[in-house]
Each structure stands twice: as structure tokens, then as C-alpha cells.
User: What shape does this take?
Amino acid sequence: MAADISGSRPCGPETRHAEIDRSFTKRRRHRKAEIYQRTRTLAPVLPALARTAATERERSRAMLEAALAVA
Assistant: This one.
């Protein structure tokens, strides 16, 4: 196996492959951490969001019924 110019570590196809694997694993771990953090951040407001959606749905239904009754 040949050494790189600085001689600090070997280079070759298997070394590049290992570096790519580490890079991929690190990115995947970081992406998962971001998703989990987003879930932890948004979980407390989910009940309020569900209540608001249900209220708006009922309000829209009432307005539609009123509009259909006029037409």
C-alpha cells in the first residue's frame, strides 16, 4: 500500500472506502439527531395544533352549510 505525500497514513482504495463509510455514517447520525430534536421541540405543541385544526374544521363546515343554505 502506498503512502500519501505527507506519509502520515496509507492511501488506497480500501482507505478511501473506509473514509467514505465514516463520512456517510456521520452524516446519517447527524440527520437523525436533527429529526429527533425537531420531534422533541414540536411534541409539546401537538395537542394545541390538533385542537386548532378541529376548531377550524368545524368553523369551515358551519360556513359551508350556511353558504349552501343561502344558495
